[in-house]
Specification:
single chain, about 450 residues, alpha+beta, Pdz3 Domain, 2 domains, seven-stranded antiparallel beta sheet, 11 helices, elongated
Length: about 450
């Protein structure tokens, strides 16, 4: 059974059991869905070239006397100057808007500066664009240590604080006093204390700012100290299949921090089913990028960057079956940007609240559907209401236990996941929503105002 409640109460219920690298549920049940990979795609790299706008054919030498030798060069010079001015205003007029290419050149220049510094420092080595991209991004990637209180012998008294797990994180913002780090929710779940290991090797305490179980993201805050580098975000909506994808993190723990693996973006907009409470019912679908860059336990929360060293995703999970290789997933950078803003401001992501507990209709036997719920035989999909929170929008709208919700605003609802996605992706707090449902075999409709 899956519940749709206020984000904070749902988080408290499921935080101890959200998905992680060690969670094999979706690996067992959804291999077919995620096994469709893009393979054998190579990336072509195009370098910009300067071209001549025009070419002047050389003239034959002619005997024209002294006057010709003076006047002709002078006239040619004047005509040439006029042509240059005309061409300049034609192609480079000040009113011409700045193009994306100009932006790309600025980004390339930043990467080229990093590459130049590396070449000067390591004059005896070959410095590639990948090397420069990693050098640019690595100072912003950290290890996140989850410390938990252990039970003392026989459960008497308080136990010691010990490391319970570790993952990775990315510094994305710096102000005068603090630095902010994004990581995965499952990296920090259950933590009594949090610690961050910087690239320099310095270990500092971290404060939890906010978490979101639905997107598996969390924000930490640390004192700025000597931190002076934050990651730059790329636009993940512009990412193409076949682009370079470079993963940076701490696979298998902080002892391997700063490890780098390289691959490509294998697919976009993958929908990966997630079962938060391990009840066999899909609670959510994570919208992720797929990559074949090696992602291992401990890489969670680390950076997936492009060839410019900019963030395209936060590494989150992988398919861990023995017969599966090179299928990892990252939360797109644009999704990360949207979520961390709410986490910074509110400590949670503000989402519309209806106030019902649900289970999927297809999990119920036909005898119960028709015998106890009196549903028509052709009604086989929907969300069965198993509980209504008192004074919630659903309660005020008149919904009751055992109502079967079949549509929202005229859009068909096949299960609780579809209902939740509709609420969270298409509605805002304060919006009205029209709910169609069956009660005792009769189709009814009501309107609720979301909180």
């Amino acid at each position: 059974m899956s519940n749709e409640q206020r984000p904070e109460s749902f988080d408290e219920r499921f935080r101890r059991r959200s998905h992680s690298f060690e969670n094999d549920d979706f690996e067992k049940d959804n291999t077919d869905e995620v096994a469709d990979t893009e393979s054998g795609v190579e990336t072509e790299t195009f370098s910009s070239k300067e071209t001549d706008d025009y070419y002047v054919e050389p003239r034959e030498k002619r005997n024209g006397g002294c006057l010709s030798s003076v006047l002709l060069p002078l006239i040619a010079g004047i005509v040439g100057a006029i042509l240059v001015v005309m061409l300049y205003h034609t192609f480079f007029d000040g009113d011409t808007p700045v193009t994306d290419n100009n932006t790309d050149q600025t980004e390339s220049k930043e990467l080229n500066e990093v590459k130049k510094d590396l070449e000067e420092e390591h004059s005896d080595k070959v410095i590639t664009d990948t090397t420069a991209a990693v050098e640019k991004a690595s100072p912003a990637v950290v290890s996140v240590i989850n410390l938990q209180e252990t039970q003392s012998l026989y459960g008497l008294g308080a136990g010691e604080i010990q490391e319970a797990g570790s993952g990775s994180g990315v510094i994305y913002k710096i102000d005068d006093n603090n630095a902010y780090i994004v990581t995965n929710n499952h990296v920090i779940e259950g933590a009594s204390e949090l610690k961050v290991n910087l690239e320099s090797g310095e270990s500092i305490p971290a404060e939890l700012v906010g978490t979101d179980i639905w997107t598996d993201l969390a924000v930490l805050r640390v004192e700025r100290g000597n931190i002076d580098v934050a990651i730059e975000f790329a636009d993940s909506d512009k990412v193409l299949v076949g682009e370079d994808a470079i993963a940076i993190g701490s696979p298998l723990g902080a002892m391997l921090s700063g490890s780098v693996s390289r691959g490509i973006v294998s697919a976009l907009d993958r929908a990966i089913p997630v079962d938060f409470d391990n009840d066999g019912v899909i609670d959510w679908e994570a919208n992720v990028l797929q990559t074949d860059a090696a992602i291992n336990p401990g890489n969670s929360g680390g950076a997936l960057i492009n060839s410019d060293g900019d963030l395209i995703g936060i590494n989150s999970m992988k398919i861990g079956q023995d017969n599966v290789e090179g299928i990892g997933f990252a939360i797109p950078s644009n999704e990360v940007t949207r979520i961390i803003k709410d986490l910074e401001e509110h400590g949670e992501v503000k989402r519309p609240f209806l106030g019902v507990s649900m289970m999927d209709l297809y999990t119920i036997s036909s005898d119960i559907l028709q015998g106890q719920l009196n549903l028509p035989e052709d009604v086989t999909a929907g969300a069965l209401v198993t509980g209504v929170q008192e004074n919630s929008p659903a309660d005020i709208a008149g919904l009751r236990e055992y109502d079967v919700i079949v549509s929202l605003d005229g859009e068909k609802i096949e299960n609780s996941l579809k209902l939740r996605r509709y609420l969270y992706e298409k509605k805002e707090i304060g919006d009205e929503i029209t709910i169609e449902f069956y009660r005792d075999g009769e189709k009814q409709s009501t309107t609720a105002t979301l909180e």
